[in-house]
Q: What sequence folds into this?
């Protein structure tokens, strides 16, 4: 469907698409096979100004919003969901600074992120704090003009490669989620170490590592917002970034559909191309319809967020939920249409199916998204009790 995009939006979309076609698609199988971090692609993204899309012009960005960011993520994910994860996770880590950082922090860190000079990573999860984000155990103790961080973060996208880390840690255990704070840690700070690199099923062009903080000492000015605001910083950040996961799902599913149609037109069985069989045609029709529905929702939610409403957690969760479940289904169906070929590494759809699975898990499992939506409904309809 032709969405009415402005000239700038069209340019962002086309720039990301061109990068995907010319640089990402030719390399994606190798990146996946070798679990290689795509530094050369990231350098090109920096040249194309793709890292600064939603960062204000005052901090070196392009000054657009969530929607334009989603347009870029979608096209990059059409090329490779692993590369798109690396790209989107950098944006995820920029949000806490953008939303809650002070002027100094924005000037220093956002401008480096916007220009692609430094990569950023968001460190919330721990081995015992995945869905239950409030159960983190990493601590940040005030010591004079410093905070001293101790603990282990797990499954952190970009860890080890990124230079800037937004770290969520406990500053006052007695206060529960109100005793949690957010900090900026630099890779060069003393006491930050990187643990094992996870060997993943998919999105293997992105890196996922543990981060170990051993008496990691940072200046007290690196706190984001104030003490006790960290849980809200993390939750708001996820509200902004989850539609990006939706966009990633839409791009990935579109790529799988494109492959399935191409194959169904050239593959002959019983003397005709398999696309002419109703069984295959109906599968393709369902796939195309579900992609358009998810795309419409993701775009609408992003445009709603860009109007800066007070609360949009429910819609953000819906866009992530619908588009990621859709991507899992469409990539699985694409493998089915390609049959035996689809199950081999000679065709890209098996990678797409492996890549899609994580979208239902990261940035909050889809079970958590349903909880968020159900909780919001309960609250909204409470007045009718
Ligand atoms: N925006 C602003 N504030 C929010 C918020 C949001 N989206 N979500 C929660 N809060 C506030 C609540 O209002 C509450 O504030 P008060 O203390 O003032 O009442 C506080 O945060 C605690 O909220 P809640 O009680 O709902 O927290 P829970 O511990 O029950 O956890 C969920 C809520 C499940 C939503 C949260 O833990 C979550 O999102 N988990 C998934 C984490 C995740 O996505 N991990 C992926 C890795 S990060 S890439």
A:
């Amino acid at each position: 469907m032709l969405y009415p995009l402005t000239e700038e939006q069209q340019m962002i979309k086309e720039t990301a698409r061109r990068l995907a076609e010319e640089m990402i698609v030719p390399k994606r199988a190798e990146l996946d096979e070798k679990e290689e971090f795509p530094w050369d692609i990231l350098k090109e993204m920096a040249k194309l100004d793709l890292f600064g899309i939603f960062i204000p012009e005052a901090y070196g960005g392009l000054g657009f919003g969530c929607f334009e960011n989603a347009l870029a993520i979608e096209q990059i994910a059409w090329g490779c969901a692993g590369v798109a994860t690396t790209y989107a996770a950098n944006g995820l880590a920029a949000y806490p600074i953008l939303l809650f950082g002070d002027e100094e922090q924005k000037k220093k860190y956002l401008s480096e992120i916007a220009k692609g000079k430094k990569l950023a990573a968001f460190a919330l999860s721990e081995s015992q704090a995945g869905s239950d984000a409030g159960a983190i155990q990493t601590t940040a103790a005030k010591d004079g003009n410093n905070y001293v961080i101790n603990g282990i973060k797990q499954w952190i996208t970009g860890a080890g490669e990124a230079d800037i880390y937004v770290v969520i840690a406990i500053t006052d255990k007695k206060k529960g989620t109100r005793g949690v704070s957010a900090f900026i840690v630099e890779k060069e700070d003393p006491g930050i170490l990187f643990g094992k690199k996870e060997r993943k099923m998919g999105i293997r062009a992105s890196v996922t590592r543990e981060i170990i903080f051993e008496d990691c000492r940072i200046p007290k000015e690196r706190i984001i917002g104030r003490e006790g605001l960290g849980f809200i910083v993390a939750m708001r950040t996820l509200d902004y970034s989850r539609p990006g996961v939706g966009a990633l799902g839409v791009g990935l599913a579109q790529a799988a559909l494109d492959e399935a149609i191409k194959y169904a037109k050239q593959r002959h069985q019983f003397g005709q191309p398999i696309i002419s069989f109703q069984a295959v045609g109906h599968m393709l029709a369902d796939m195309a319809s579900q992609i358009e529905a998810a795309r419409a929702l993701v775009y609408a939610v992003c445009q709603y967020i860009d109007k800066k409403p007070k609360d949009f957690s429910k819609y953000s969760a819906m866009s992530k939920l619908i588009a990621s479940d859709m991507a899992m289904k469409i990539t699985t169906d694409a493998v089915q249409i390609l049959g035996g070929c689809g199950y081999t590494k000679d065709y890209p759809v098996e990678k797409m199916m492996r890549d899609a699975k994580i979208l239902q898990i990261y940035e909050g499992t889809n079970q958590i998204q349903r909880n968020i939506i159900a909780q919001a409904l309960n609250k909204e309809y409470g007045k009718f009790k």
User: Anything to note?
Assistant: Residues 122, 124-125, 131-134, 177-178, 231-232, 235-236, 238-239, 313, 362-364, 368, 371-372 surround coenzyme a persulfide (CB under 6 Å).
